[in-house]
Structure formats: structure tokens, C-alpha cells
Amino acid sequence: MTIDGWEVSSDGTFSAHFTLRGDRDESFTEVVEFGPALGGRTPDDRLLRLLALTCSPSYYKAAAPPAIEIAFPTTGFERHYLSELIAGGLGEFAYRNGLPAALTPVISGAEADVAVGPADGWDPEAAPLVPVGGGKDSVVTIEALKRHGFHPMLFSVNEFDPIDRCIAISGLDSVRVRRRIDRRLIEANARGAHNGHVPVTAINSVIGLVVADANGLGPVVLSNERSSNVGNVTWEGRDVNHQWSKSISYETLLRDTLAAYGFDPDRYFSLLRPLSESEIADRFRSSPQYFRDFISCNRPFAIDAGRRGATWCGHCPKCLFVYGLMAPRLGRAEVSAIFGHDLYAETDNRPGFEDIVGLGVHKPFECVGEYYEAAQSLLDVLDDDAWSGVPLVEEFRSRRDELEKVAAGADDGGSAVDYVPDRYRGALAAT
Fold it and tell me: What is the protein's known function (predicted)?
């Protein structure tokens, strides 16, 4: 595959070009419509280079060729970034498709010298840019920052109802960009090209950095928790993590790359990194204004608008995990009202809940927390008389000993590292 290059038009449209080489070359263009989000300013060339590289795995995976050629000059640290992005961000894709070699393509291209300029003139005290995902995590970040006196600018990629509702409830200003995957890639997938999970959070993170820099904003503040550091399975000697681009591994990689460009690495960090999913859930219950509008299920976020659902599906791992986590914190009546029905009353959900609480095959390939968190939440439900007689609650009651063993296995989420600056750390203490 060749990463051919990129350009930005006068109306703020970024286009990155890729070609899969073979008997018949196939060319693709990914588009990010920044439009008004740039405020009429020209984006920093270094961040655009990084964005072009970060978008490339979506197209590389269609054929997973043994080599990637970069048609424009790059530095060693940029090629290292791309190598690590593929190795970590496409781990699940490679695992599901049985393609271990897809994680180690040879990356080549002309060498460039990126001159590091004077000290970064960025203002760390300017208003932060906070990506909004429509779920509980970004809500916790937003409300924590507001309570601590920050006035964040909210940010989203594409238009989704749960995101827009959460932004409206926050009462804060927001900015949106539109990202379009080349339809030819979707058509290639329909013809049998390789397909699978890609590091979307990495792409959105770099887009956020472009927007924040163009508008003179402070850091891009993510809402990725400690639990996302923990992978799903070990395969071919690798830790395969569905949430790799939300993990401390990617956060470190991107910060190191920013520093190599001459940027202050504190332009990017996750406020919630020190917290587990359980601790985030504890904080979220103090924001009831969002209860009927947040959604963590993937269904309302489908790329194809015709396949989007309006609310929680009630069966996917994300639905089951969030339901299980919030059940003891909000009570049966409230959590059932949020989801539209009691998910513990549906016996078809038994295998899904088993996977969530550590009694199944492995941690689901979804953005869910750790076994011990879900197991402890289920134990709390078992001790609440309000749930007595609910079919799955009664079934799990007979497995209490197993659940207690899982709940006793709490750890630090695989890493105690975080990059939260001191002036932001107080926002967590204030929640």
C-alpha cells in the first residue's frame, strides 16, 4: 500500500489519499470536513501529516499487504508512530482474521528532517477541548471540569443524536467536524476485502488536536479510563486490546510523537485515566440530568444512518456492562427506565452477562470494563431485595462463590500511569 499524501482546500476540507497496489490498483480518499471548526485558519502541517498517517490503517487492513510505502518524506519517529499504531490498533482485526503478519508490515519512504522550532507557544491555561462520545465517561469529564471552574469547548466527529443531546444538556459551546470514509472501501469490504476494528479513537484524537491548535485552545482532554488498559486475549505473544487506542499505550505514543514534533505533550491527556469504570459510574450518578439521554450502545452510532437505532439495543456487551454497573448505583426502577426494560429479566442475556462478569469465554471485544467491576456490581444486586425473583439475578445467585472470586481479583487496570496535569487533577478530587 502507498500513503500518497494529503491536502486541505480553502473551505477547510482535508483529504488523505491511499492506494492498494496489486493486479489492479485501488485508490481511496478519506475526507475530514473541518469547515468552520478551523475558524478560517490554516492547520499546522505537522498535525496534518500525523492525521494522514493515522487514517491509513482503515485502508491498509482491506488487503493487509506486507509493505507500506509513504510517498511523502517522513521522519523515523513518524514511521515508528505508524508501526505502533498498526501493531496495537489492528490487534483485534488481525486476531479475528487470523492475520498475524498484518501487524508488522515493512514501512518505507524518503527520509525527512522535521526541524524543531522554538519552544511551543501553546497556552496550557486556555479553554480545553473535550471530545464528546454520548456516553457516561465524557459526561463525567464535562461536569467535573465545569465544577472546577473550567469552561471547555465540546467537540464531536459527525452527527449523532446522543452526542448532540449531551452537548445540549451541558450548556457549553461546541464544534463539530465531519469525517467520511471512502465509499469504495465499503464496497471493497462487500466484495470480500478484509474488514474489522480500527483505532477510531486515535483518528478522532488527532482531528481534535488539529481543531484545538487552529483555535488557540488548551489541551484535548479525553475521557479514557484506567480499565481500557486491559486487553481481551493473548494471541501470538501479543496482548490484543479492543480499546488499544483508548489505552495508556496509545496516549503515551501520541504524546511522545507530539514532543518529537516540538509540541508540548500536555496538549493531549485523559482526565479519567486514574479512575476505574466503577469509580466513573459512582461519579456519573450525580448527573441525573443526563440519565434519559446518554447512550453507550453502538447501535445509535452506526456509520450507515439507515442502520442506526434510536436507543439502547439491550443485548450487546456495552449495554450489558453499563446496565450491570449502574444497576446497584441507581436501583432497579431507574436503570430499567433508562434502558426501557430490565435486562436481568431476559434470559437470552445470560451468555452476555457471563462474559461481562468473568464467567464466560473472554472479555468481550467492546469498550467494557474489567471482570471484577462487573462481578462486584452483580454481587451488590444480589444483596438488594428489589431484584429478588428477577430470572437472571436468581440464576447468578447460585453462582455467588464464583462471582466473589472474580470480584476479589481487582487490580490497578494494568498500569498506574497517568498524565493528568496538576491544574486539572483537582477536577477529579472535586467530584
Answer: Cell wall formation. Catalyzes epimerization of the terminal L-glutamate in UDP-N-acetyl-alpha-D-muramoyl-L-alanyl-L-glutamate.
Same domain, 215 and 294: no
Residue 274 amino acid letter: P
Q: Are residues 82 and 218 in the same domain?
A: yes
Residue 402, φ and ψ in degrees, nearest 5 = -65, -45
Number of other residues whose CB lies within 10 A of the CB of residue 331: 16
- Structural domain harbouring 184: 2-112+174-270
What's the number of domains the chain is made of? 2
Which residue in the block uniquely carries the three cell numbers 516540538?
A: 262
pLDDT digits 0-9 by tens, 201-241:
999 999 999 999 999 999 999 999 999 999 889 999 999 99
The answer to whether the beta carbons of residues 91 and 55 sit under 8 Å apart is no
151 within a domain of the structure (yes/no): no
| Residue at grid coordinates 469490504 | 189
H helices present in 271-408, as ranges: 277-284, 317-330, 332-339, 350-356, 371-382, 391-397, 400-407
Q: Which helix (H) or strand (E) holds 210?
A: helix 200-214
Answer yes or no: do 309 and 222 share one domain: no
- Amino acid identity for residue 388 in this structure: S
Closest C-alpha to 145, from 283, 276, 37, 325: 283
Question: Does residue 288 sit in the same domain as residue 355?
Answer: yes
- How many angstroms separate the CA atoms of 67 and 104, rounded? 9
For 104-118, how does the pLDDT look when each residue is reduced to its tens digit (9 = 90+)?
999 999 999 766 666
Contact 219, 212 (CB under 8 A): yes
- Reference 242, options 355, 165, 406, 157; nearest CA is 355
Angle at 96 (CA atoms; ends 94, 99), nearest 5 degrees? 35
Residue 294 CA neighbour count, 13 Å, CB half: 26
d(CA 370, CA 285): 19
Verify that 328 and 298 share a domain, yes or no.
Answer: yes
Q: What is the pTM of this model?
A: 0.94
The domain boundary, picked from 220, 243, 270, lies at 270
The closest alpha carbon to 322, from 302, 308, 336, belongs to: 336
Type of residue at 111: E
